[in-house]
Amino acid sequence: MESQMNLGTKAYEQIEKIVPINQKLVQELNTGAHTSDEIRQAVSQIINETIDSSTEIRLPFWTDFGRNLHIGKNVFINSGSMFTDMGGIYLGDNVLIGPNVTIASVNHRVDPVQRRHLDLKSVYIHDNAWIGSNVTITPGVVIGENSIVGAGAVVTKNVPANTIVGGVPAQIIRTIKGEN
């Protein structure tokens, strides 16, 4: 999904009503000890969807909006990850997210006069993908099923299914074949 959101519009005003509520919830989540169930419950409240009991989220957990983050089953999100989700972030089943990963679905415009306006592009991470530590995924990127993004990579283009990528910007390293 691609769209734009301009400051001062009704859509932006709706966003600005949700952000302070969710930022308070995120801060409360990250300032105490919580059980796995409590973490799932708090994140469910932030994203307004029930997190499956098979999913594990390590703290701290960060999101700038929350309501456009969608998390599948048996997902593992390691500590320090940031989800800039206003444009939509979709995590399939069995996805692994390493520590300190940043996934952004929002960008600002190049024109300085319009710089505060937003361009929104959804990010899709398909089933069984593994995102290594300190990876950055930029708006509009699709990570294919079973793919691996190596630690420290900056992903600016789609990653085909069954592919390993790495580097800055991320480049294909090799295809994953039926390895045992």
TrEMBL record:
Pfam families for this protein: Hexapep, Hexapep_2
One MF annotation (Gene Ontology) recorded for this entry: O-acyltransferase activity
InterPro entries: Hexapep, Hexapep_transf_CS, Hexapeptide_acetyltransf, Trimer_LpxA-like_sf
Gene3D superfamilies associated with the record: Hexapeptide repeat proteins
Keyword Amino-acid biosynthesis assigned: no
Record's keyword terms, sorted: Repeat, Transferase
Xref: SUPFAM superfamilies: Trimeric LpxA-like enzymes
Parts forming coiled coils: none
Entry keyword Repeat: yes
Family: Belongs to the transferase hexapeptide repeat family.
Protein's name according to its UniProt entry: Sugar O-acetyltransferase
